[in-house]
Structure prediction request, 169 residues.
Amino acid sequence: MGGHQYFGTLGISEGTNSGNNYGVYGDASHSSFSNYGVYGISSFSNSGVNYGVFGEASNSSNLNIGVYGKSTLETNSYAGYFDGQVAIGDNTPKKAIGYMLSVDGRIAAEEILVDLDADWPDYVFKNDYDLKPLDEVKSFIEKNGHLPNVPSAKEVEDNGILLGNMNKI
Prediction:
């Protein structure tokens, strides 16, 4: 096995026309349950890297996509579905161990929904809430260099921040 590559399906597209070129094309358009256009499983226990589905886009002109998925239905239809942890940019996440998605790099989005299980802190507007006087807040800032209940720059550098919790502050 050493030095060899084994493929269940290998597709290479080296077309030079202006249309669509597919190395492997899968279509799951039937109306019954569990249809897969392309389905990949990696279950070997060797010391190398095993890929269920691998896509690479390396041409420098036009639009090149290693793996592309498209969903045109509205309910329970996904362009991609991952049953487990997903890593983007690095397959050895540094801080995101235990999270479903780890991104090594920047993320751009038009909108992000943070769906918290905890209560939103409207309790601070209730009459029985112990609101700290401004002189106590000022004293805390002078002593600690950051707002009360807000992590310091050092804490953020070491541990990151939980976006939902920061929005609650």
User: Anything to note?
Assistant: The first strand starts at residue 86 and ends at 88. Residues 134-144 form the longest helix (11 residues). DSSP finds three helices and two strands in the chain.
